[in-house]
Amino acid sequence: MSNITIITSEKNWIEDTAITQLKGVAALPGVVRTVGLPDLHAGKSPVGAVVVTKGVIYPHIIGGDIGCGMGLYSTGVECRKFKLERWVTKLNNIRELSDIQTVNPYEEPSPIYDLGTIGGGNHFAEFQVVEKVYDQETCAMLELDESQVMLLLHSGSRSYGQRILNEYKDCHGLAAGSEAMQSYLADHDQALLWAARNREIVVNKLLGYLGYTSQIQKLIDCQHNFIEQKGDVYIHRKGAVSAELGPVIIPGSRGSLTYIVKPAGNTEVSAFSLSHGAGRKWARSLCKSRIRNKYDRDTIRQTKLKSRVVCHDTDLLFQEAPEAYKNIDTVIASLLQFGLIHVVATLRPVLTYKG
């Protein structure tokens, strides 16, 4: 189809099911362009995809986790003072973040729902350290301090966004200018705000529980699931970030590096969007049967990078194992090949918390 672009390379694997899903979306009325990024994989709608429409929007493409995204924070904790075993022990004492009371710091009314929680699936909080700096100037602009522990948080609007989708999920599309579209976009924008606030609350809550609260600084926050109006078109990003808001975070799995990149000058080819991560390689239902003989209850909680994982859900540990994800280096190489990014720095995980 002439309105489909796929950003990939010879070494980057993309499953046929994801491409079929992308073609299905491309055939919807009003779709003028679709882009599959290197992390493209199948979901309820294709993930790692950008869909540009005119005269209509499609809430089901974005899905229920409106505003899902990632925030990178400087913790104020010096790497030399980081005590891995102490933090592992303390985090193992809570099953999930809802065990810690949430304080909503915002004055205006805000839906509580699951405020102050990370969520399941591929959501996580991960403590990381700087592995390598490639662009010192941009790191300085971001105030990325190599001597400090970083915290990368992946979370979204939780049940708030899902409730919004439930009101519009039967729609085949909302016409531009219609009351239904205006109502959805107003709710959508509130979910974006809620998701960003939730990430900040989770970070403060988690570090406060560990005993560190005074030096937290947000360096980057980028959304993955949202609709943006650009001129007379609407850009639907499902598992994709904007390439027009400065540096972004592209993580791999809990067993691989995270990349900080800045957009290069060729992002029109990707509908002004970049990848949001490595992208899944295996369906969650297949993971445990494929690798259960490789790990025991202890080794599944460690990675080849010598980082540790705290998670009380054994099934989730297997579903989110590094093997379930594509090679992040290959995804980054594909983006570089298309002239879409410059690499700023890489970060290495030291402790991943899921719950």
Strand-residue proportion: 25-35%
What structural class do the secondary elements suggest?
alpha+beta
Q: What's the tally of helices?
A: 9
Order of helices and strands: EHEEEHEHEHEHEHEEEEEEEHEHHE
CATH class: Alpha Beta
What would the CATH topology be?
tRNA-splicing ligase RtcB
The named CATH superfamily: tRNA-splicing ligase RtcB
Distance between the termini: 42 Å
Principal-axes geometry comes out as: globular
Mean pLDDT: 94
Radius of gyration: 20 Å
CATH architecture: Alpha-Beta Complex
Whole-number count of domains: 1
Q: What share of the residues lie within helices? A: 25-40%
By DSSP, the count of extended strands is: 17
InterPro entries: RtcB (IPR001233), RtcB-like_sf (IPR036025), RtcB2 (IPR017510)
Binding site for Mn(2+) 1: 123
GO molecular function: GTP binding; metal ion binding; RNA ligase (ATP) activity; RNA ligase (GTP) activity
Keywords: GTP-binding, Ligase, Manganese, Metal-binding, Nucleotide-binding, RNA repair
Description:
Keywords: GTP-binding, Ligase, Manganese, Metal-binding, Nucleotide-binding, RNA repair. It catalyses: a 3'-end 3'-phospho-ribonucleotide-RNA + a 5'-end dephospho-ribonucleoside-RNA + GTP = a ribonucleotidyl-ribonucleotide-RNA + GMP + diphosphate. Mn(2+) 2 binds at residues 154, 224. GMP binds at residues 122-126, 224-225, 276-279, 354. Its EC number is 6.5.1.8. With 355 residues, the protein is of the alpha+beta class. It has one domain (4-353): tRNA-splicing ligase RtcB. It is 28% helix and 29% strand. The protein contains nine helices and 17 strands. The chain has helices at 16-26, 59-62, 84-92, 136-142, 158-168, 179-210, 284-291, 314-319, 328-337, and strands spanning 4-6, 31-41, 47-53, 56-57, 69-78, 124-133, 148-155, 174-175, 217-223, 225-230, 233-238, 240-242, 248-251, 258-263, 273-275, 308-310, 341-353. Strands 5, 6, 7, 9, 13, 14, 16 and 17 form an eight-stranded mixed beta sheet that branches. A five-stranded mixed beta sheet has the order 1-2-3-11-10, sandwiched between helices. A hairpin with a 6-residue loop joins strand 13 (248-251) and strand 14 (258-263). Helix 5 (158-168) packs antiparallel against helix 6 (179-210). The protein is globular. The relative contact order is 0.20. The model has no long low-confidence stretch (mean pLDDT 94).
